[in-house]
Automatic annotation (TrEMBL):
PANTHER family: COPINE (PTHR10857), COPINE-9 (PTHR10857:SF112)
InterPro entries documented for this protein: C2_dom, C2_domain_sf, C2B_Copine, Copine, Copine_C, VWF_A, vWFA_dom_sf
Tagged with keyword Transit peptide: no
Family, as annotated: Belongs to the copine family.
Keywords for this protein: Repeat
GO molecular function ontology, one term from the record: calcium-dependent phospholipid binding
Keyword Repeat in annotation: yes
Domain C2: 1-100
Protein's name in the database: CPNE9 protein
Pfam families assigned: C2 (PF00168), Copine (PF07002)
Signal peptide start and end residues: none
């Protein structure tokens, strides 16, 4: 802002050159430069600098502001000023925005440089759009208009930066632009809620038109108009936008299975856990000694223990994942099961019992209903064993096999301490389920090493059973302990857990559709 005017018959033609100081040598090395903007003393540069930021290091930066320097050599006669800052200063400034005075020209006030920093998200989402417009203004004297669209992205400080421009459609008032694909990071840096004011209110229609309205090739605005756009992405995004007709979305059906085995702690198997090498014996019905009575786990060593001030790891994982995925389940009724417990009144061991104690209708109303049933089950059943996954996987697979046309997709969340007893049967169940519209999320709680869970995840080696390989990767495993925030920010850490465990679901859903040649249904005209 307010740069020196170095040109005789016009204003300066500024460019910014960024230098980075070597941490060891102290030598300044050019990192990059912006575009040259002609004839202005208040330029807004489009080109960005992407740097790696290290909290623990001092990263010194120098911004030189020459005028009209299209070549590699910066001439002293073109110098408009410079500024020295540390990257940490910019990162730590309010809203990531720092204004610094330019210096370096004796006896002159050189103006200021404004620096804005924004952490790049790891978002890999892309969006495909096709846009059209109707009844635009006629701007050409001998013909119609030649419209195109310009997109501006909102920065974190409320300013806007150009991020995309469509092709020009010649001589028409009803243009239909070609479909284009753009990274979500380019549009909003992965922040889907960015386009609002500081209080979170939505942008008004007139603002949307002004930012996304069409322009004529000659540069004049074509005025307000309705722009119809289609987002071809996760079908559930379309579900959330009823204003736009589209194909019926895939319905997600969410099922929960919770580990009630004694290896979670608090008596049960002798010593409160299953000794090494015991799993095979237990799987064929070996009877343990010293089991505890039913009731809420009262010792903090139990993974099911809930203090008056905090939910158990099981409940936290359930809430973190369930509260997001429930938005894609229209009836909000979730079948919820437990496995590995002795049930009253006769002490029968079950590997698939309804948490709400209703075998005819195991569905709970919302995630709060699942939590309530889970806590009630803890009061009535006895933690026991063994830990068998296959029965509940086969149960959900049976439901998934009923509708395979792509309109229904099932997601099974298993929360467990990872001490699995039926590994061979579970692999067989996963291989069978991989051909069905189904995904499995496994959240491991407790201190176990989880080698078996990593094997079921199949990221490195595809799961196989008796010579058959899984048709596709349908299992996502994460250890809960990786998301425990020592600072006590439970909300943030659980949000990270949910994001990571759900990250593979869209791709797994698409892989089922592609494998079975299920194409999106055409929308009604």
């Amino acid at each position: 802002r307010n740069l020196l005017d170095m040109d005789t018959f016009s204003k300066s033609d500024p460019v910014v050159v960024l230098f980075v100081q070597g941490s060891g040598s102290g030598e300044w090395k050019e990192f990059g430069r912006t575009e040259v903007i002609d004839n202005t003393l208040n330029p807004d540069f489009v080109r960005k600098f992407v740097l790696d930021y290290y909290f623990e290091e001092k990263q010194n930066l120098r911004f030189d502001e020459p005028s009209g320097s299209h070549g590699a050599v910066l001439g002293a006669q073109d110098f408009l000023g410079q500024a020295f800052v540390a990257l940490g200063e910019v990162i730590g400034s309010q809203r990531g925005r720092l204004e610094r005075a330019l210096t370096g020209v004796p006896g002159k006030r050189c103006g200021t440089i404004l620096l804005l920093a924004e952490e790049l998200s790891n978002c890999r989402d892309i969006v495909t759009m096709q846009l059209c417009a109707n009844k635009l203004d006629k701007k050409d004297f001998f013909g119609k208009s030649d419209p195109f669209l310009v997109f501006y992205r909102s920065n974190e400080d409320g300013t806007f930066t150009i991020c995309h421009k469509t092709e020009v459609v010649k001589n028409t008032l009803n243009p239909v632009w070609q479909p284009f694909t753009i990274p979500v990071r380019a549009l909003c840096n992965g922040d889907y809620d960015r386009y609002g004011d500081g209080d979170g209110a939505a942008m008004g229609p007139e603002q949307g038109v002004s930012r996304f309205g069409p322009a004529a090739a000659g540069g004049s605005e074509l005025g307000p108009c309705w722009v119809l756009f289609f987002l071809f992405c996760n079908p559930n995004y379309i579900k959330a936008s009823p204003s736009f007709p589209g194909p019926p979305p895939t319905q997600l059906n969410f099922t929960v299975a919770i580990d009630f085995t004694a290896s979670n702690g608090e008596c049960g198997w002798p010593g409160g856990g299953i000794p090494v090498g015991t799993a095979v014996g237990l799987a064929v019905g070996r009877v343990p000694m010293g089991c505890c009575a039913a009731g809420m786990p009262s010792q903090p060593t139990s993974l099911h223990y809930a203090s008056p001030y905090q939910l158990s790891a099981y409940a936290l994982a359930l809430k973190a994942v369930g509260e997001i995925i429930q938005d894609y389940d229209s009836d909000k009724l979730f079948p919820a099961y437990g496995f590995g417990a002795k049930l009253p009144p006769d002490g029968k061991i079950s590997h698939q019992f309804p948490l709400n104690n209703n075998a005819d209708n195991p569905s709970c109303a919302g995630i709060e209903g699942v939590l309530e049933s889970y806590l009630q089950s803890l009061r009535t059943v006895q933690l026991y064993g063994p830990t068998n996954f296959a029965p509940v996987i086969n149960q959900v697979a049976g439901a998934a096999a009923q509708v395979t046309d792509g309109s229904q997709y099932h997601v099974l969340l298993i929360i467990t301490d990872g001490v699995i007893s039926d590994m061979l049967q579970t692999k067989e169940a996963i291989v069978t389920a991989s051909a069905l519209p189904m995904s499995i999320i496994i959240v491991g709680v407790g201190p176990a090493e989880f080698e078996a869970m990593e094997e079921l995840d199949g990221d490195e080696v595809r799961v196989s059973s008796r010579g058959r390989y899984a048709e596709r990767d349908i299992v996502q495993f994460v250890p809960f302990r990786d998301y425990v925030d020592d600072s006590g920010n439970q909300v943030l850490s659980m949000a990270r857990l949910a994001k990571d465990v759900l990250a593979e679901i869209p791709e797994q859903l698409l892989s089922y559709m592609k494998t079975h040649d299920i194409k999106p249904r055409r929308a009604d005209p």
